[in-house]
Amino acid sequence: DPHGKFSISPQFGIIRTKKPLDHEAQSVVVLTVQSQLGNSPVYSSTQVNISVIDINDNPPVFPTKSDKVTISHTQPPGTAVYIAHAEDKDSGLNGAIKYSIASKQSDAFSIDPSLGVVNLTRTVFAEKQQEYTLHIAAEDCGTPPLTSLLMLTAINLTDHRLASLAVKIVIVDVNDNSPSFVSSPLSYVMENVEVGFLVHHIIAKDPDEGRNGQVTYHILSGNENKAFVLDKITGLLTTAQFLDREVQECYSLTVIALDDGNPALSATQVLTITVLDVNDETPVFLKQLYETAVHENQDPGEFVVRVEAVDRDAGLNSLLLYEILPGAGYEKFKMNSDSGELVTAASLDRETQEVFSIKGSSCHDLGSPSRSSTAQLHLTVLDENDHSPLFAKTQYHISVTEDLEEGSAILDLSASDEDAGLNGEVMYSLIDDTYGAFAIDSVTGSIITTKALDRETKSQYTFRAVASDCSTHFPRSTTVMTVLIQDVNDNAPKFEQSYYKASVWEGQSPKTDIIQVFATDLDSGLNGETEYSILSGNENATFLIDSARGILTTNTGLDYENTSSYRFLVLLASDRGTPSLNSTATVLITVLDVNDNPPVFSSPEYHVHVKESIPIGSHITEVSAKDCDAGANAEITYAIISGNERGHFRLDGTTGSVNLVKTLDYEDTMKFTLVIQAT
């Protein structure tokens, strides 16, 4: 800023104008701004591009206020008789000129509004009018438009005037001057201008006259992509397509100015066109999705990831600021707005939130208006082994039946560990003696039987199960298992003896107790409740048994003489399980004899005939009696209770044999009547 047109606030960096600016004198100002920080200054600098926007403050200007041209009736319609040329120091539409005939005395003339070429519209005759006055207006396209006037006098030469001119000395111009550029070799244009925008007015002067001084303009090189169009007559350079500073920032056009002499002379100029940046590029992140991981339990300030975006614009339009957009969990992070580095703002806990999906990380440039873009952040919190496994319950009470097969699962224990991966893998074990009955799957926690269970041997097991992870720092989790073995009717009642002997006196009244039998059942509940019954050998319902107590009693009076024993009385002991189990025992019941039957002689009378001459000692007869009783009750003793008063006979008390002990005398006693008693 050599002319001191600008000032800057040292504290806030606000740039202000100090003097009026003139677009025509300088359309672009490039300021270098320096900042310093601290007592031992640290310096930083940046470049500020200031475009001075044109206003329509300059009217078109003709080189002269009036001019003359000669015409002849020999010139046909359409002949160009004059080229009006005005210059406007403004740019863009403010410097674009339109030509018109403001007032005219005849309709013999017309003008090209863009090129300023005045043409005949018909043949002119001097006899009718020798001089024409045209007022040519040059008007720019600004708002409001500014106008200048040129008075052009057209003199119609007659043959007489030509003749009179023949005596004059005319100095004929020779093309001895090349065109010379008077326009600036530098031009600036914003990249967002429309197609057809006036970029630069190329002007070259040629002091020669006539065609020798008429200049046309052409682009020799630098316009290979056809970005610009140059009007060869007016020298107006306009855009032919949209410009993009990010594709091409600078154009170097080699322009030639060529006069119409013979031979033609020319001059060249390298026109440098700088395309000025417009904030038309949106920042673009190098990745649309940033995926990273960070460990839990770290102190705030832990580095997470660095995001990066690029902006193809220049200057402030390309300076980026980064931020995190509000979303779930975003408050746990903070981002360096300049570098894009993301760090934690708090200690993270994976068990509370394992994944943070933040949409998004945003960046915006410092252009006006600002442009921005977003990227997705996917953050995974890595686990640390900071939790021990926990069982759902501290105690488990379960019941299983004793008939489970070996290898049966009785319970699936589950302990949860909030950690992940290996840190959360739970291993199970048993730490108490299970008497070889149970084991636990170390991976699944399933408790299985390792042998057949027998409630009658052991009806309850109590042991502890442990859940642990791979950590050696955290305590293990323990739960107490109480397993109750439920009874299955797998034991039949068993009599104390398989064979019983008992006796009962005959003649006892019914319901007399004979014997009490006992059967034991190792099962419990209904499975161990025993009922007694008589299975067989009691066809006449002679006996009864108490179903609960097992007491066998008579149901009728017994008669030894009828049945002295019952050998095949089979008792049944049954439990109340389902299905019922049973066992049997045999009872031998002996009926004891009571002396309830007298001896009975085989004949009520015995008649014996003997000779009186039989010798002493002879066997006379033998009496016999029977007793239905048994034992001593059936042992019979015989005795003569009458008729043997003189002692002729002797009776054997045991055998009942009667013998003669004294001689018989028929004449004395013809007949003996002996009364014999059997006892």
TrEMBL record:
Family matches, as Gene3D superfamilies: Cadherins
GO CC entries? plasma membrane
Main location (coarse class): membrane
Taking every annotated instance into account, which residue ranges of this chain make up the domain Cadherin?
6-62, 63-181, 189-285, 286-391, 392-495, 496-601, 602-679
Picking any one GO molecular function of the record gives:
calcium ion binding
Q: Which InterPro entries match?
A: Cadherin-like_dom (IPR002126), Cadherin-like_sf (IPR015919), Cadherin_CS (IPR020894)
Q: Where are the transmembrane segments?
A: none
The record's annotation in Pfam families points to: Cadherin (PF00028)
Q: Which GO terms describe its biological process?
A: homophilic cell adhesion via plasma membrane adhesion molecules
Q: Does the keyword Disulfide bond apply?
A: yes
Q: Where in the cell is it found?
A: Membrane
Annotated keywords: Calcium, Cell adhesion, Disulfide bond, EGF-like domain, Glycoprotein, Membrane, Repeat, Signal, Transmembrane, Transmembrane helix
**What protein is this chain from?**
PCD23 protein
Task: Name its species.
Answer: Sterrhoptilus dennistouni
State the taxonomy lineage: Eukaryota, Metazoa, Chordata, Craniata, Vertebrata
